[in-house]
Each structure stands twice: as structure tokens, then as C-alpha cells.
Amino acid sequence: MRRRNLLTLAAAGTVAGCAKPGAGTAENLAPDAPDPAGSSSPAGPAFPEGFGWGAATSAYQIEGAANEDGRGPSVWDVFCHEPGRIRNGDTGDVAADHYHRYVSDLDLMQDLGLTSYRFSVSWSRVLPTGRGAVNAKGMDFYQRLVDGLHERGIAPVVTLFHWDTPQALQELGGWENRDCAKWFADYAHTMFTALGDRVPTWLTLNEPKTVVDVGYTAGTHAPGKRDRNLANVVGHHLLLGHGLAVQALRGTTGKSRIGAALSLSPAYPADDSAAAAHQTAIADGEENRRWLDPVLRGHYPQDWLDTQPADAPVRAAIKDGDLAVIGTQSDVLGVNYYGTTHVTSTGGRIMVHPTSQATWQEIDPNGLYDLLTRIKRDYGDIPLSITENGMATTNPLRDEDRIAFLRDHLAAAHRSIQAGVKLESYHLWSLMDNFEWAEGYTQRWGIVNVDFASQRRTHKSSADWYKTVIARNAV
Ligand code: GCO
Known about the structure:
Blueprint: H1 3-11, E1 52-56, H2 59-62, H3 75-80, H4 98-112, E2 116-120, H5 123-126, H6 136-151, E3 155-161, H7 167-170, H8 179-195, E4 201-206, H9 208-218, H10 228-250, E5 257-263, E6 267-269, H11 274-297, H12 302-306, H13 313-317, H14 322-326, E7 333-336, E8 341-343, E9 349-350, H15 365-379, E10 384-388, H16 400-418, E11 423-429, E12 448-451, E13 456-459, H17 461-472
Helix pairs in contact: 4-6, 8-10, 9-10, 15-16
Bound molecules: D-gluconic acid.
């Protein structure tokens, strides 16, 4: 896609920075994408020995088996069944049927050569009402999954919350209710006890920003509310839940590591004006520092707090001692990177780089380098994992555009390692096509194609390419 078209799109108001809207126009990079590095191309510089080559998924997006073996509903089950919420009326009831096909999916991961796999636990599969007695069959699924990963030499990276709040807790206010942070920490403790050291890396929350911006502000994700004040309270309670879960792990004798997975987007001014620079600093607060500072420094950025009116409910939600809990030292930080943000002098967002089928995405591999080196500069040497990075494309099998994307982002990741960033692993989003939230099954993010009618899995070109990269330990 040419820049001219992008600017037209931006002018028409169809692109809006890195927030994930509920709907988007299909765009395809293929005609303009550079040629991919084929398997015969010479390898670039090697990644460090032991670098983790991974892929990521999440429970609601792949598992299906929504009503089986005692699983309770989550907010996403309820949301999907409300008319008009999801494109084509799709739901995650069956999704990629991973709950039943996990063994062949594990074999598929092994065949690719993955050394790391990031998945999430469905809270309401192990605790059907979010609290109380464990559903043994649900827990058993995750035990078998973790065992199967170990048998294949793949390290599990387990996310505890990938947006699927148990519906029973939502009926008590969900994350609007401060108690949810405690319920989450109790659930986390249950998982730590059950899986213990067999999980070397836990991730507390996935992208709290998306819950705040899309679930509670735009209202196009579950639970579908549109209330910015409430959204910010939810954001605080999510962070509190993160801190309490980190503390819950510290209370065990295990050796696992823990951290959050944040979606981060470097913000750049769209022009040279002082006003654009000022607006960019504000955007950086909202996109990045508002999440990074509490988790890694134990305070909210003052300039972000200053954007909250004196009577904003989030101010009352922040109690004494909360920030110390939220800032409990993490062992690792998960970085979800999809692209950059460009900010105008009036605070608007425009795109200056290509997009993908997901039109909120502004593709800029250099932004990944800037982001990783910035985290090192501003927050120190916490070990980093890229917990998500990828693009949607309409190319069902010959996804050369995705190969170009992955190649350029891996090159940027490699440069950041050369610049001293402690980057340990890379998880592309996603292992296989799956339920893409409000977009249903219309956006395909996998390197493995899923035919949702037959549930047949087929390697895309990108899967074969990634397999070669992993085998070489180099792009
Ligand atoms: C997210 C989620 C994933 C999405 C992916 C593509 O980061 O939004 O973690 O569940 O599917 O990002 O939008």
C-alpha cells in the first residue's frame, strides 16, 4: 500500500493510531511487499545461543469447548452471543478446537522447532465462577498441555489473564470492583500451586491497555462499556491485580519468573512543531508510561495523572500502598509490539507507514528497535520477551507480506540485542489463525492456516520460513 493511500485513509478518519477498533477495512500489503528471504537466502547474524523462538495464542481465541468439562462462561462468551457485537455473529464456542486437538497442535509446534510457547489459561475453565473450588477437568487440560510442551522441549510461557474475566465475577462488577484484584491473585496462586516450577515464566495480564481502551472506552470488546472514567478505574484495578499476583508468586517456594505483557507503541510527532512534540509526550504517557511506570517504578507518571480531572474516579481508586504493590519487582517484561503512533499538533493520530488488514496497525520495524532500547534506557536492564508481534493478511497461504514483516521485525530485534538490550525470546502472533475478537474469523494472524469448517491446519509460507529461521538461529 502506498503512502498516498494511507494519507487518504487517515484523512478520511479510517485510521486511528494503535487502538484496536471493532471493525476495519481490509487492506493487503502483498502487491508492494518486498520479496521475502527464501530458505536459500544467506542467513543474517545469529541470535544469542538459547534465544527463545516462540509463538503465542490465547485461550478464548483458540480453545473452543466453551461449554465442556465444567467450564464456566467468561465475559467474552456472553459478549459474543449478543447480537451485533462480533463480525458475522462469530463466537469462540469452537474457535480452533484446540481443547480437543492440543496433541496434534503440540506436534505442529515441535515440527516448527519452537522452543517457547505462550498461551493463556481460561480463568473460568479452572474456576468456573472465578473463585472457589477448582474444576479438576479444566485444570487437567493445562497440566497435560504443560507436560506435552516439556516432552517436546518447548518452554511454557503462561498468561493468567488474556481478557476473559469469568462472567460470575463480572456480575459482581468485574474489574470495576476493587475486589477483583484479590480474586485474580487467588486464582493466580491456584495456578502457581498446580503447575509450579513446570512453568518457568508466568505473565500476569495481557495488554491491560486494550481492556481499558477497547473493552471500556470504545466498547467494541467485552464487556462492551463506554465509560472513560470507569475504564481508568478498571485500569488501576488490573494493575493492582498484577502486583498482587506477583506477590502471590513470591509467597511460593518456586523458582518461576513473572511479569506483565504490555502492548507498547512508540509515539512520534507527525511534524516539527512544538505543539506536536507536546502532544506526543501526552500520547506517550497514555500509550506507554502509564503502564510501564507503575509496573517498573511503582508510580504513575505525574503528567499522566495531571490529565485526570480532580474529580476523576481513578484518583479515589488509587489507595495508599497500591503503587508499592503494583511496583513489586517483576522478573521479566513482556512486550507486545504491533506498530508506532504518530501524533499531530492537535493531538490527532495519523499514519505515515503502511498498515495491514488490521487497519489500526501502523507497520514500522524500526519502532521495535526504538521501543526496546528505550525500555533499557529508561527502565534499566529487566529481561525482555517479545510476547506478541505479527500482522494480519488476507493471503491465506502464500503470505509473503507476513514473511517480510517478520524478517524486518526480527532484524530490528537483533539490532536491539547488539545495542545491549536483554531480549531473551520472541513470540510471533500467532501460531495459527484464530478468533480475532470483534473481527471474528475475518482477520487471519496465524502462520498456520486453519480451515474452520474442517479444522484442518496447513502451513503458510511464513510457517516454513520461520522453521528455517529457528533452525538457523538467524534471520
Ligand atoms: C492483543 C491480543 C491478541 C490479538 C492480537 C491481534 O494483543 O490484542 O493479545 O489477542 O489477537 O494482538 O490483534
